[in-house]
Amino acid sequence: MFKGKTVVYTSGTFDMFHINHLKMINYARGLGDLLIVGVSTDELVCSYKAKPAIPFTERLQIVEALKGPDIVIPQHSLDHTEIVKKLHIDVFVVGDDWYGKYDYLQDLGVDVFYFPYGNGISSTSLKKSIYESYNQSLRVEREAKPIIPKEE
């Protein structure tokens, strides 16, 4: 089915979809002929970090709406051995926050690329920024309310 085509796989949580997610998917798109994107299920994400803010089905639909991916699938495991074999993956792309974690795929003949997220935006930083902004708004609102003395 994929004979003569370079199959690229990238995956992630894609919570609170942001520009670095898009950059990584576009980078992966440029490395081959067919791009498969795995979106981590809520159960998988909760096995190693906090539950995503955006539910799995919505994250999946957001990634499906992009023009880059040819196929979008659920990702149920951080071990990619089986998916590499089943889908004949030639190239694997993941954020550099996972650097070294997927080197074992090279033993299966897969080229592994760790996409440099760099500094700046991440789902974690977005959540923190929203939280801090919300708390600041609450403080300003509380300070602006007049203090009404209690009647005795």
Polypeptide structure, described:
The longest helix has 22 residues, at 123-144. The chain has helices at 19-29, 42-46, 56-64, 81-87, 123-144, and strands spanning 7-12, 34-40, 71-75, 91-95, 111-115. Helix 1 (19-29) links the parallel strand 1 and strand 2. The chain has a 5-stranded parallel sheet. By secondary structure, the chain is α/β, with parallel strands linked by helices. It is elongated, with a radius of gyration of 20 Å. It is built from 5 helices and 5 strands, in the order E-H-E-H-H-E-H-E-E-H. The termini are far apart.
Sequence of strands across the biggest β-sheet: 3-2-1-4-5
- Structural class call reads alpha/beta
Distance between the termini: 83 Å
Give the mean pLDDT.
89
Q: Report strand %.
A: 15-25%
**Quaternary:** single chain
Residue runs with pLDDT of under 50 for 5 or more positions = none
Total number of β-strand segments?
A: 5
Give helix and strand order, one letter per element, not per position.
Answer: EHEHHEHEEH
Backbone shape: elongated
Count of separate DSSP helical elements: 5
Helicity, in percent? 25-40%
- What's the gyration radius in Å? 20 Å
Largest sheet: 5 strands, parallel
